[in-house]
């Protein structure tokens, strides 16, 4: 059954006339008659008594009940999907978010809490993975958006910088000076698995110091990395804001990256990445609003860490 036919059927029942229905729907009476005949053929029953006024048969009353529900659901869904500015509590559905683990641990909790307060009917799913894996998941449509290091290289993805992080060297012992190349060669770096953007910065930093083969041990989880660094197992390269939050818990120490090359490698932008805005769901629009993302401008103001407090 076509929604157009159901709308005409509803109009005839409400107006008591094929002619009145045609006027309300800005069409000709023969078009209304044809759609009603098509509906009756589809359901295998007479739906209207052709009297004056026209009224529904028992079968017609049954269909009218469902027709109103279907038309109402259609109109509500259309209005919601066409809306770009959602009122509090209006967004409904599931938002599938991908994020680097450091961003998920530090930046997202206050944002997600605020999103849920504004739209209680939103359900959230979070996948914490390295940047390369997140871009693969996003391109395959398994997540709706992702927080990754830097803009996405794929032309079909859209990126907006939302956070700026300073990467620092993390150690289990106080750092009175920056370690030498020999000291780094005698130790290891603890990092996330291959595809992590921070891991790439480790390799670039070591290359700038003339170290061609740095030893990197994959530990996977943030707490494991910090715990092993605190135990003296090796170094890590993590965001300063994250280390400052976790410093008391793990007893780790940190130092800024020295020199021009170090500072160039230290600062990284975390970008909010999605597919084309034309395909966004209402819940994704609500999240983008919260982040200050303008789908047209492709840019956003950095979100303060404590904005949801």
UniProtKB/TrEMBL annotation:
<protein>
    <submittedName>
        <fullName>LysR substrate-binding domain-containing protein</fullName>
    </submittedName>
</protein>
<keyword id="KW-0804">Transcription</keyword>
<dbReference type="InterPro" id="IPR036390">
    <property type="entry name" value="WH_DNA-bd_sf"/>
</dbReference>
<comment type="similarity">
    <text>Belongs to the LysR transcriptional regulatory family.</text>
</comment>
<dbReference type="Pfam" id="PF00126">
    <property type="entry name" value="HTH_1"/>
</dbReference>
<dbReference type="Pfam" id="PF03466">
    <property type="entry name" value="LysR_substrate"/>
</dbReference>
<keyword id="KW-0238">DNA-binding</keyword>
<feature type="domain" description="HTH lysR-type">
    <location>
        <begin position="1"/>
        <end position="57"/>
    </location>
</feature>
<dbReference type="InterPro" id="IPR005119">
    <property type="entry name" value="LysR_subst-bd"/>
</dbReference>
<keyword id="KW-0805">Transcription regulation</keyword>
<dbReference type="InterPro" id="IPR000847">
    <property type="entry name" value="LysR_HTH_N"/>
</dbReference>
<dbReference type="InterPro" id="IPR036388">
    <property type="entry name" value="WH-like_DNA-bd_sf"/>
</dbReference>
